[in-house]
């Protein structure tokens, strides 16, 4: 697991929020009001959210007040935490009970009844089979997956959730190394070179990679370049020295118009439009998930 943070949002009125794609799965446990997703077929409220890797923005209808715990999950940890490869969760947001069974409502109830955030993180660690930093004094905690991948045994999921293939084999080592190389280069490695480095043909790599993550290597590379750009834009905005041309060059885009096109494709708006919406959140320290991915 990459990170886990407690959050509380307070708005003067309900607003729409852009949930940006990233190289992580998103796991949210609300403590009061549900997360409301604005979809083509209407709105959908989720008390516990398990969202896979995606290439498109998720529109979230923010309540005037909401508390919860949000975790960024490494895609190679999906088998251990959720009992399925990340590919089975890709391009969709699931109600937690459809993936985790009775654990999801039990976890939500226990977190809501806890007295403080320290207790909530301890409960989260126990229920999800994690080991978290035992330090005190902060809302956010780093978390690392522990165990042998069997933590999900005994959980009964609801019909309609993702299929549960056999997890005995685990991910292919070539796929694990391909993800590592993409992360290390922030998506800037050429796919031909990536395939050569893991001793597979480009076609074979694409097949195995999509079976594990639900994205092609090219899609994952684009996702990571975008995430790197979000991190740099957030840092520049907080420092009051944002230079979009420099961000484009640093993140592997041909020029600033290329960055603008890719940002619109992922976020549904331009970098400046996104900043106008998110600046108060950025000032408050939001969107640091991308910085953690870069570490």
Task: Kindly describe this structure.
There is one protein chain. This protein is an alpha+beta fold and 295 residues long. It has two domains: 3-145, Jelly Rolls, CATH 2.60.120; 172-295, Homeodomain-like (Arc Repressor Mutant, subunit A, Orthogonal Bundle). It has twelve helices and twelve strands. A hairpin with a 2-residue loop joins strand 4 (35-39) and strand 5. Helix 5 runs parallel beside helix 8, helix 8 (217-239) packs across helix 10 (256-267) and helix 8 crosses helix 11 (271-283). The protein is globular, with a radius of gyration of 19 Å. The model is unreliable at 132-154 (pLDDT under 50).
Write the layout of secondary structure elements.
Elements: E1 3-10, E2 15-19, E3 25-30, E4 35-39, E5 42-46, E6 48-51, E7 58-62, E8 65-73, H1 78-82, E9 93-95, H2 96-100, H3 103-113, H4 117-128, E10 130-132, E11 140-141, E12 143-145, H5 173-184, H6 191-197, H7 202-213, H8 217-239, H9 244-250, H10 256-267, H11 271-283, H12 289-294
Antiparallel strand pairs: 1-8, 1-11, 2-7, 3-6, 3-8, 4-5, 4-7, 6-9, 10-12
Helix pairs in contact: 3-4, 5-8, 8-10, 8-11
The tally of beta strands, per DSSP, is 12
What is the H-and-E element order?
A: EEEEEEEEHEHHHEEEHHHHHHHH
Low-confidence stretches: 132-154
Q: Tell me the name of the CATH class of the largest domain.
A: Mainly Beta
Q: Which of globular, elongated, flat, extended, rod-shaped describes the shape?
A: globular
Helix content: 40-55%
| Biggest sheet statistics | 6 strands, antiparallel
């Amino acid at each position: 697991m990459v990170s886990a943070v407690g959050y509380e949002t307070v708005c003067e009125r309900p607003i729409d929020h852009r949930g940006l794609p990233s190289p992580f799965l998103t796991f949210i446990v609300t403590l009061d009001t549900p997360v409301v997703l604005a979809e083509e077929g209407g709105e959908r409220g989720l008390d516990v959210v398990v969202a896979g890797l995606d290439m498109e923005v998720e529109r979230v209808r923010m309540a005037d007040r909401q508390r919860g715990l949000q975790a960024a999950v490494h895609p190679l940890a999906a088998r251990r935490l959720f009992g399925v490869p990340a590919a089975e969760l890709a391009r969709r947001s699931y109600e937690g009970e459809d993936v985790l069974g009775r654990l999801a409502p039990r976890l939500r109830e226990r977190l809501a009844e806890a007295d403080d955030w320290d207790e909530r993180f301890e409960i989260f660690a126990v229920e999800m089979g994690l080991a978290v930093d035992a330090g005190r004094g902060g809302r956010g905690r780093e978390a690392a997956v522990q165990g042998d991948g069997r933590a999900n045994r005994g959980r009964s999921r609801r019909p309609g959730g993702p299929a549960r293939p056999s997890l005995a084999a685990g991910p292919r080592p070539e796929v694990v190394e391909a993800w590592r190389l993409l992360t290390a280069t922030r998506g800037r490695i050429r796919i031909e070179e990536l395939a050569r480095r893991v001793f597979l043909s480009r076609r074979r790599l694409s097949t195995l990679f999509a079976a594990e993550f639900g994205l092609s290597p090219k899609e994952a590379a684009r996702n990571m370049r975008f995430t790197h750009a979000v991190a740099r834009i957030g840092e520049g905005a907080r420092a009051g020295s944002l230079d979009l041309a420099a961000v484009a060059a640093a993140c592997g885009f041909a020029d600033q118009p290329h960055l603008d096109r890719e940002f619109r494709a992922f976020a549904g708006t331009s970098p400046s439009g996104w900043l106008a919406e998110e600046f108060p959140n950025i000032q408050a320290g939001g969107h640091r998930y991308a910085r953690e991915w870069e570490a």
